Amino acid sequence: MSASVESGGSRRADAQRNRERILQAARELVHEPGELKLNAVAKACGIGQGTLYRHFPTREDLLAEVYRRDVEDLVAAAPRLLEQHRPPAALAAWFDRVAAYARVKRDVFAAVEAAMWRDLAAHSLGPIGEAVELLLAAGRSDGSLRADAEARDVIVLISWLTRLDDAELDARGPRLFSILVDGLRARA
């Protein structure tokens, strides 16, 4: 293999690592009070602003990707959890992840303009609804979850999460999710 190909492969790997570091730093910093500053993200990653701007030309691009990544991670968790747990337990474990997603959603949506918020919300509703439906369908199939439960029902019920501050989400979230899972269980 030529040195230039190896070098190119190395640069691509470095670029991917930088992108991941940028997203992680932005995910953490978006939660802090005040406007998310791109120079603060670059500083937290230990990279130059030019590197950050090559990956994310605008603050909105970065915030949109932070949100999209959280949606993707949440959606991808559903089938993995079903491989490890029966449907009610998988749904409960998935709800634990929903709480973390709700925090990021609240913070990102607070940081972006209304038009961008609508685009982000439209992007997430379909995939999240599909993940909920996957979990519910597994439970309907094995008889552990209600036959009449629909993904939209669950989404409506969990939509309040982005309205809670962290302390209330920490205090009430686990109990409320438990109540929701219990309400979704099939009755004998």
From TrEMBL:
Q: Which organism is it from?
A: Amycolatopsis azurea DSM 43854
Per the database record, which ranges form the HTH tetR-type domain? 16-74
Pfam families in the cross-refs? TetR_C_43, TetR_N
Classification from the root reads: Bacteria, Bacillati, Actinomycetota, Actinomycetes, Pseudonocardiales
Which terms are listed as keywords in the entry? DNA-binding, Transcription, Transcription regulation
Molecular function terms in GO for this entry?
DNA-binding transcription factor activity; transcription cis-regulatory region binding
**DNA-binding region per Swiss-Prot/TrEMBL record:** 37-56
| Record has rRNA-binding as a keyword | no
Name the Gene3D superfamilies on file.
Answer: Tetracycline Repressor, domain 2
Q: What is this protein called?
A: TetR family transcriptional regulator
